[in-house]
Amino acid sequence: MIRFLTAGESHGQGLVVIVEGMPAGLSISEDYIGAQMARRQRGHGRGGRMKIEQDWAHVVSGIRHGRTLGSPIALTIENKDWVNWTQVMSVAPVEEEVPRVTRIRPGHADLPGTMKYGFDDVRDVLERSSARETAARVAAGAVTRRLLEEFGIEIYSHSLAIGGVWASYDGEIDWDRVEASTVRCADPEAEPKMVAAIDSAKEAGDTVGGVVEVVAQGVPIGLGSHVQWDRKLDGRIAQALMSINACKAVSIGDGWESINQRGSQVHDVIEPVTDPSHPWQRKTNRSGGTEGGMTSGTPLVARFAIKPISTLVKPLPSVDLDTGELVQAHYERSDVCQVPPAGVIGEAMVALVLADAFMEKFGGDNVEETRRNYQGYLKTVGPRAMTGQRDAD
Ligand SMILES: Cc1cc2nc3c(=O)[nH]c(=O)nc-3n(C[C@H](O)[C@H](O)[C@H](O)COP(=O)(O)O)c2cc1C
């Protein structure tokens, strides 16, 4: 229902994204999208590029007088760094010789991409495979986040681990604290240790990865479906998060931890319904908000692992594309840790998947039509005696 496409090279003129399938009549502004984009740019461990860029998504189409039109929403994001790359990234052929990148970087798209597309310059791959593209995803995610907000769905994220340091927390997370933290950490004790892990990796010319947790609250029961593999919501979330650059694992709820436990310790007991306005309460949320490929009505909790950045100040040994001989991998200005921004990107991907599933379930060309459908559905969710369905039998 909601789909998006991005375009753009890291050092090209900019990024473009089109979001299609949004209902008409939703209020949204460039400032709202800009606030999400600014969140992606923060974080301890980011490199020099983020000091150059101050991302802003210009709305080209699909919004008029602060409201969506139901038509495709097109956004452009300028690359400020482009002015330094006009020759290297020129659309038209250039007179002067542009140095080729031939020292392949392990851990990147460099080698498979160069072979697959038949290039003689690794730059033809690395420009697009760069995580710069995720700025466009965050812009698209912001558009869908606005829709979800309208229905009381809020999405958050925090860094669960960085460089081997794990955060621990009991119960409610203080999301304001996470936003104020340079490493997006909810645990005040782990936070300085995470910062130190990043600093020590930087000093050693190395990089660190970690684990991010994304939480979506207020998600209604029944998004996604059990009937076909590609309609299962947990599968769609996993694909969306796995597609984030450097993501190497995704889990939902207790995920990997649940395999060491017995069934009685893993499943979420359903409690008797006493309050018809809050039916189907669970004692726990070990499942992370999905059962059988559908949302269960508890918060959606997904974790994903981000590998340490592949480009190292002290480059790894590699080979030259031309000669096949031993060289040091190419180094281009790079981050030391991308876990904090990955959280914001993860939120955007979850927002895109949830909004898609939400529109699939409730439809509507105008947000008020969507609201009517949504509210009508909520009246049917609950024990049949309480929703009046049993009386109708
Ligand atoms: C927000 C973010 C920023 C990143 N910045 C860099 C970077 O500065 N240098 C780098 O080598 N990799 C960076 N990466 C990771 C690469 O984009 C990623 O490792 C590469 O695309 C290959 O990953 P894959 O094997 O998971 O596809 C970043 C990733 C994210 C999510």
Task: Report a brief summary of the structure.
The protein has 393 residues and is an alpha+beta fold. It has helices at 30-41, 49-52, 110-117, 123-129, 134-150, 175-180, 190-203, 233-242, 263-266, 339-362, 367-378, 384-387, 389-392, and strands spanning 3-7, 14-20, 57-61, 63-64, 67-68, 73-78, 154-162, 165-166, 210-217, 247-252, 290-291, 294-295, 300-306, 317-319, 326-328.
What does this protein look like?
- The chain is an alpha+beta fold and 393 residues long.
- It has one domain: Chorismate synthase, AroC fold.
- Helices cover 32% and strands 18% of the residues.
- It has 13 helices and 15 strands.
- The chain has helices at residues 30-41, 49-52, 110-117, 123-129, 134-150, 175-180, 190-203, 233-242, 263-266, 339-362, 367-378, 384-387, 389-392; strands at residues 3-7, 14-20, 57-61, 63-64, 67-68, 73-78, 154-162, 165-166, 210-217, 247-252, 290-291, 294-295, 300-306, 317-319, 326-328.
- The strands form five sheets. A five-stranded antiparallel β-sheet has the order 8-7-9-13-10. Strands 1-2-6-3 form a four-stranded antiparallel β-sheet.
- A hairpin with a 2-residue loop joins strand 7 and strand 8.
- The longest helix is centred in the C-terminal third of the chain and has 24 residues, at 339-362.
- The chain is globular and about 80 Å long.
- It starts with a strand and ends with a helix.
- The structure holds flavin mononucleotide.
- The site of flavin mononucleotide (FMN) has 21 residues, from helix 10.
